[in-house]
Amino acid sequence: MATNILMPALSPTMTEGNLARWLKKEGEAVKAGDVIAEIETDKATMEFEAVDEGILGKILVAEGTEGVAVNTPIGILVEEGEAVPDAAEAKPAPKAEAPKAEAPKAEAPEPEAKAEATPQARPQTKAEGGRVFASPLARRMAEQAGIDLSGIQGSGPNGRIVKADVEAAAGKPKQAPAAAKQDAAPAAAAASPAPSAAPKAAAPAITAPHTAVPNSSMRKVIAKRLSESKATVPHFYVSMDIELDALLKLRADLNARAPKDGPGAFKLSVNDLIIKAAARVLRQYPNVNASWTDDAIIQYHDVDISVAVSIPDGLITPIVKKADQKGLAAISNEMKDLAARAKSGKLKLEEFQGGSFSISNMGMFGVTSFSAIINPPQGGILAVGAGQQRAVVKDGALAVATVMTCTLSVDHRVVDGALAAEWMAAFKKVVEDPLSLML
Fold first, then answer.
1. Is 298 in contact with 286 (CB distance < 8 Å)?
2. What letter would DSSP give residue 51?
């Protein structure tokens, strides 16, 4: 039976995307898990996997089209020998996919009601033998996130679990749907006086000569997330001056010994050693490698460092996963690859979504010190300034040392002042005695 292929929600913040390129042509066979198109989101260019099998009967949205809303039909999948209908006639996929757009909201529709209205879209994700129907990408994402697929209601064709279902399961507490149903009536009653509420104040008119640069999708997401972070997360800051001379000497020695080309080649940056040092200390202080929820403080088992990278439209934070378990050369090469693909928009979703702690280094721009905004739901971010030669006092005498100022921003609900100070003191000790990173 003909099925609409819908514009997917490839990230939690995505409401529309650009159809960059079709990787399948009309008339070509499609299998579940095949990459059929490339979609540009607000963060990166990502691959779109098919969730069902058939023939790509018709392309409804040409490649290069911008601003395609999530859940808009972009193609039609048919069975072999089946006539290709119009988009409106290929009904099963839109009805089955419809809950996907509502998944993050409290008022998500009941899956059972959808099943009764649309017999073709089976809400059950398990076969009689207990098999769970899910796309290959959804299975990989669930495995990485530690999510049991048997507890997820699929919204794909024939009740198949797709990427958006796993993202929704990972991004909200399990009790949210029940709470939403219980609170639906009071919420409706409370909402009734809304028309009499005071209107939102209009933005002041700008009369000076100016150029209006439209906000990109990425810029809108950055503005929203950082505004929410500063408004809802109680930030607390701890700064410390750290001497870099020993670390710079170790970096120079290791780079001098490194192969210049071939599989084992590497060239360490100061930032690579900072990532390793922060990861080492986060392993020592798991209560800083943590996030706040209303029910519990979540202490992450892995130390996944998000590193801020500047790109043309804003910034993105690719993740060095399990950084405490990797050597300096591995971190350096991985970071170079992530940064390069971040700037070309080729990062995969799992390479920049998540992370347990962030680092933002502006030392290369000559910035001496700054305070960074926490990247929710993480509990901390380290701001790294430039290394500068400064006068210091050693054993009662003046000396010259290369010093950088680092500022730790923490969520005060997760990390108290004394704990933040202990973490910074431990970080300072590791950086000033960097040979410990080799152990």
1. no
2. S
The two structure tokens encoding residue 170: 């990972």
Type of residue at 40: E
431 has pLDDT over 50: yes
CA distances for 93 relative to 17, 156, 172, 222, angstroms: 19, 7, 24, 32
Do you know the residue count of the chain?
Answer: 439
pLDDT at 288: 97
Given a contact cutoff of 8 angstroms between Cβ atoms, the answer to whether 357 and 378 are in contact is yes
- Is-catalytic flag, 412? yes
* Residues sharing a CB contact under 8 Å with residue 310, sequence separation 6 or more, in sequence order: none
Beta strands in 139-271 (DSSP E): 235-243
From 210, 235, 301, 412, the catalytic residue = 412
Q: Return the structure tokens found at 113.
A: 């009601």
| 395 contacts: CB under 8 Å, gap ≥ 6 | none
Residue 106 corresponds to which amino acid? A
Q: Which residue has the tokens 């079709």?
A: 22
Distances (CA, A) of 360 to 283, 306, 308, 310: 19, 9, 5, 10
What is the largest distance, in Å, between two alpha-carbon atoms of the chain?
Answer: 89
253-259: long-range pairs with CB below 8 Å, 24+ = 254/328, 258/329
Q: Which token pair is 301?
A: 């088992």
The helix (H) or strand (E) run that includes residue 197 is none
Burial (CB < 10 A; 0-12, 13-18, 19+), residue 283, is middle
* Rounded-to-integer distance, Cα 140 and Cα 153, Å: 17
183 or 258, which is more confident = 258
Of 71, 92, 84, 75, which is closest to residue 25 (Cα–Cα)? 75
Q: What's 25's DSSP letter?
A: -
Would you say 372 and 407 are in contact if contact means Cβ atoms under 8 Å apart?
A: yes
What is the rounded (10 degree) CA torsion for 338, 224, 382, 316?
10
d(CA 370, CA 363): 10
Residue 428 CB contacts under 8 Å (≥ 6 apart), including other chains: 240, 242
- Beta-carbon contacts of residue 193 (< 8 Å; ≥ 6 apart): none
Beta strands in 206-271 (DSSP E): 235-243
Element (H, E) at 91: none
**Residue pLDDT, tens place only, 149-174:** 877 888 776 677 877 788 788 765 44
